[in-house]
């Protein structure tokens, strides 16, 4: 079932179960009790990325799956630190490069002119790929596309899948985020413009910390039953704050 047809009407009751921020693209993030929402989504979300110094591309777990076993967290002063799988806490490019196995640089959003470029497999369903194409991400923070600064998914859509596979910013208790598409909603004191469904790639099949095993059936099921989409994207129409337990309402 295509996500656009999932629900059809705005659900009666959706509330915030979890909030997540991912300071460094493709690394593990932080679960929050509350968050500030601004033009780039959750404050500090996707504000840094690792860049391959040989190719110039931003590095993602599509290309380097081991990135999912590192983590990132914001410091009190608003800067970021990386936690390597062995527990080492660092911001040093050489240390991070030693872990990744290639020369990389940790860069903040806006540190280079133009939109960042990444590599993506020609076949999104393939676990491994020998053919890759380059694509441009969104300007500003390291989101995948300009129409997404926030991602929302409901527990009804996730079913028995581990929500952490999909790296959504907002996990809503209830069913039917497809019914939000094209609407303006209030979440806490913020107002969101809900846009399109989010297409999914091989990243959702990758193993991750916390007992998330490799599972190729996840992406196959999403393509077979949902047209390749899961969760919805949103832009922040009016900044504000949100916390767990807040109820999503029409704006």
Protein model, in words:
This protein has 251 residues and is mainly beta. The chain has three helices and 18 strands. The protein has helices spanning 93-100, 155-158, 217-226; strands at 14-21, 30-32, 34-38, 41-42, 48-52, 71-74, 80-83, 89-90, 104-108, 117-121, 132-136, 150-154, 170-173, 184-187, 190-199, 229-238, 240-243, 247-250. The chain has a seven-stranded mixed β-barrel with strand order 1-13-12-16-15-14-18. A three-stranded antiparallel β-sheet has the order 4-3-17, with no helix packed on it. Strands 6-7-8 form a three-stranded antiparallel β-sheet, covered by helices on one side.
Question: Which features characterize this protein?
Answer:
seven-stranded mixed barrel; globular; three-stranded antiparallel beta sheet; 251 residues; mainly beta
What would a concise description of this structure say?
With 251 residues, the protein is mainly beta. The chain has 3 helices and 18 strands. A 7-stranded mixed beta barrel has the order 1-13-12-16-15-14-18.
Shape: globular
Relative strand content:
35-45%
Order of helices and strands: EEEEEEEEHEEEEHEEEHEEE
The whole-angstrom Rg is 17 Å
- The number of strands is 18
Summed over residues and divided by their number, the pLDDT gives a mean of 91
Level of helix content?
under 10%
Structural class designation = mainly beta
Q: Could you tell me how far the N terminus lies from the C terminus, measured between alpha carbons in angstroms?
A: 27 Å
The number of helical segments is 3
Adjacency order of strands in the biggest sheet: 1-13-12-16-15-14-18
Low-confidence stretches: 1-5
Largest sheet: 7 strands, mixed, barrel
